[in-house]
Design a protein that fits this description.
2 copies of one chain form a homodimer. With 255 residues, the first copy, chain A, is of the alpha/beta class. Chain A has 2 domains: 71 residues, Orthogonal Bundle (Arc Repressor Mutant, subunit A); 112 residues, Rossmann fold, CATH 3.40.50. Chain A has 9 helices and 10 strands. Chain A binds a DNA duplex (22 and 22 nucleotides) through helix 1, helix 3 and strand 2. Chains A, B: This is Redox-sensing transcriptional repressor Rex.
Chain lengths: 255, 255
DNA sequence: GTATGTGAACGCTTTCACAGCT
DNA sequence: AGCTGTGAAAGCGTTCACATAC
């Protein structure tokens, strides 16, 4: 059974912490906006505000890249844009394949911000033979049967999975076998991949559930003893002694 | 100026760490799958594998909820499903409004996993008058002018923003003014919100850039001195002394 | 015997606060 | 005087390893 390693354990590239890497795109976006407004330099305070972080964090982050600022002045916008782009590997372009051209896959294919910075939709792949040849966002959809060849021919190393959950692992395996080493997974599935393959996931349902947790907390802040009907709770198999916190299972359960 | 607090600083609910909250949906999904297969109990090891984490982490996570397992046996699946659902606030249903019905908004409206667990698409809102009345996923799109009323009438406390980046902050402000206290933002924009409002963001572009970073690292692992043409780097305004690591700007720049 | 629940150790991330340049 | 760059401290999150309960 494949155990599947997701995200980075602690391999740490050339010393840039993962948390910092995750913020570089944020800084880059803010810097690009400044660049378009022809702003020549920016302070850590200003840039941090624009990126939605605090300035100490930003300075610490930049310190991992090198000393790219000027004391008493700030950072040169163009110069930083280049340095961060290079660090993120955006000075080359990355052909990307999207597998699963349903509503979401099509939406991503049409997404403008995709091509904007280094990424290029090189192929759209779907298992439905009826879709083969249909153009989506100006690109003809190709059939899964040719996945291997499509990946190889286009030198794709980043794959995006937007299939139904049931197909995700299989598609993932085929992508990896074809040479893909980075996967962005939109399917609500835990993917197993061999060592050396990176997986990041985007999961609408999980995000909503996290929001609901906090939302519930807010609502329950004043009204402690609720008067709402508590959904019929299932009984426990082993009715042993529990010691959960207040919100435990009701002592009486519905017949 | 609104400073805008994103995510949770460190308020920590009733003691459940944020990292744990973020994993509860994962456990819930794995447990639901087991439940559908009528599996009565599961060990921390098995469940951890299914959820893609290690068992120590899972047990630690569950310990924050209470002692819901049985030593020497494992966890009762149904019981845990109920406890986690309750903890996440999924025993009540959450009406959600989606603002910005373009490709992505429509895709989300059609997304099945949405309604599945406690969430219900209560309203679709768009600024384009031509879209008003058009049904998307069986729900008529309403115009932004009525946003306030729509939110109030439906008791929406969770909003999803899928507008173009330029409109996101304005839509966010209006949602918050109308009573929304949780926002899921798909627009590539840093949102400013007042204290007490939670924002989570989903950003395709950021995820791809993080993957590109690691991808670049993999590629450069053996080939140190690259032969690729390095995109013309911009010159620095202040040509002062830098001490960045190896990947510095080329000493000679293109004429 | 077996698997949970948890203090303690460890490592990563953030924040502080100030030395070091410009 | 002003702002960056960075050690040191504090805060979180993960992992270990074993006492505890079944």
């Amino acid at each position: 059974m494949a155990t599947g390693r997701t995200h980075r354990p602690a391999t740490r590239s050339r010393g840039i912490p993962e948390a910092t890497v995750a913020r570089l795109p944020l800084y880059l976006r803010a810097l690009t906006a400044l660049s378009e407004r022809s702003v020549p330099t920016v302070s850590s305070e200003e840039l941090a505000t624009a990126a939605g972080v605090n300035s100490a964090k930003l300075r610490k982050d930049f310190s991992y890249l090198g000393s790219y600022g000027t004391r008493g002045v700030g950072y040169d916008v163009e110069y930083l844009v280049y340095q961060i782009s290079r660090e993120l590997g955006l000075t080359q372009d990355w052909p990307v394949a999207i597998v699963g051209i349903g509503n979401l896959g099509a939406a991503l294919a049409n997404y403008g911000g995709f091509a904007s910075r280094g990424f290029r939709v090189a192929a759209l792949i779907d298992a439905d033979p009826a879709m083969a040849g249909t153009p989506v966002a100006g690109i003809a959809v190709q059939h899964t049967d040719d996945l291997d060849r499509i990946i190889s021919d286009n030198g794709v190393s980043i794959g995006v999975i937007t299939t139904p959950p049931g197909a995700a692992q299989q598609v993932c395996d085929r992508l990896v076998a074809a040479g893909v080493t980075s996967i962005l997974n939109f399917a609500p599935t835990v993917l197993s991949v061999p060592e050396g393959v990176d997986v990041r996931k985007v999961d609408l349902s999980i995000e909503l559930q996290i929001l609901a947790f906090h939302e519930q907390r807010k609502a329950g802040e004043d009204a402690s003893a609720d008067g709402e009907d508590p959904e019929a709770p299932p009984m426990r198999a082993t009715p042993a002694s529990r010691k959960g916190p207040d919100g435990d299972m009701p002592a009486v359960m519905p017949a």
